Amino acid sequence: MKLFTVGPVACYPEVLEEMSRQMFSHRSEEYKELHRETVEMLQKFIETENQIFLFPSSGTGFMEASVRNCVEKRMLCCVNGSFGKRFSAVAISNGREVEKIEPSLGEPVTPDMLDDKLLKCPEVEAVSVTHNETSVGLINPLQRIADVVKKHGKLLFVDAVSSMGGTELKVDDWGLDVCFSSSQKCFGVPPGLGVGSVSAEALKRSEVAKNKGWYFDFKLFEKYQGDAGTPMTPSIPQISGLKRILKIIEDLGGKEKYFELYAERNKRIGMGVKKLGLPLFPCKGYESPTVTCINAPSHINGLEVYQKMRERGFELAKGYGTVKDVTFRIGNMGHIELEDIELMLGALREVLA
Ligand SMILES: Cc1ncc(COP(=O)(O)O)c(C=O)c1O
Question: How far is the CA of 60 from the centre of ligand 1 (A)?
């Protein structure tokens, strides 16, 4: 099966090989070296001097952690798809009050909307935004959103689960307080590792946070980070795999080259779909660089497209959330060969016919 999924995605063979090595203790020198090097490479990749923590959880662990460590009472969640909705559900289930901005599905969160809302709700302590809303294939204008959040002096939590690794993130320049992702997306590593940067201000909030729990306590992670470790057993194979892909990216010529590869693949998928006469779901100008969300034509629904593509050896992604029947998605993450894109588009032409 050729994978055009949105996570878990196809992994690089070198990553899988690296992950098959014999284990070692997470308190050993071998682990400390792996931990230190992976954190340093990630810091360089997302341009930050903030601490980077390695959670033995998927990316959602960082949503929970952001809320529990940094929000006492109330936060603002930008919701323009299922994962924005999840962030607000996590906050509510942890007993926090939530204000929301909810553009129509397929529309971005705009800086003006956010500015208006923050003027009306100055008491919120933090804002969450989904950088790349995987459910509808839309990328929000993060840098401009961050400018507004910082103007209002709030903390900013960024769900970069399906953008980190596929497009630029400048954590320090843009002022992102918590910015997290999962191993199984653009880095092309199996699931089980959450990675995220945490700013000094977010750590300060964590210092005084009450009932923040133990497993995702930023301050506890900071303490262990000093000795290149984690409070609990980390997902060592995934961390080894992540370090391997970061090294592959370096050898390719750096992250810009990796982003060029994503852009080229995305362009080919987008143009191919357009040639088949299929419109994209998100509003023009905000199409995701890592997942193409397509309106299914009237004669075949999204799920049928997905199933018929599977019969031809291609695993795409089903529609998600409220548009699950009327859309389907083509992932552009992980290990995808350019020639497979042409084959996949050929199969899609057959399915539509
Ligand atoms: C934008 C976004 N946020 C959060 C998640 C949840 O990530 P995880 O499954 O790693 O917890 C996903 C997963 O698809 C996602 O695409």
Answer: 6
Write out pLDDT tens, residues 232-278: 999 999 999 999 999 999 999 999 999 999 999 999 999 999 999 99
Task: Tell me if 83 CB under 6 Å of ligand 1.
Answer: yes
**Which of 57, 60, 164, 324 most suits a substitution to test ligand 1, by most atoms within 8 Å of the C-beta?**
60
Ligand 1 centroid to 329 CA: how many Å? 15
Cis? peptide before 111, omega within 30° of 0: no
Cβ atoms within 10 Å of 256's Cβ, excluding its own: 11
* Domain chopping of the chain, boundaries: 13-250, 255-352
Nearest C-alpha neighbor of 122 from the set 89, 73, 179: 73
pLDDT tens digit string along 123-151?
Answer: 999 999 999 999 999 999 999 999 999 99
CA of 58 to the centre of ligand 1 (A): 8
Q: What does DSSP assign to residue 323?
A: G
Q: Which CATH class is domain 13-250?
A: alpha beta
335 phi/psi in degrees, rounded to 5: -90, 100
Alpha-carbon distance of 267 to 47, in angstroms, equals 26
Q: Is 2 helix (H, G, I), strand (E, B) or coil?
A: strand
Angle among Cα 155, 157, 159 to the nearest 5 degrees reads 170
- What class, spelled out in words, does domain 255-352 have in CATH? alpha beta
Q: Which residues contact 44 (CB under 8 A, 6 or more apart)?
A: none
83 C-alpha vs ligand 1 centroid, how far in Å? Answer: 7
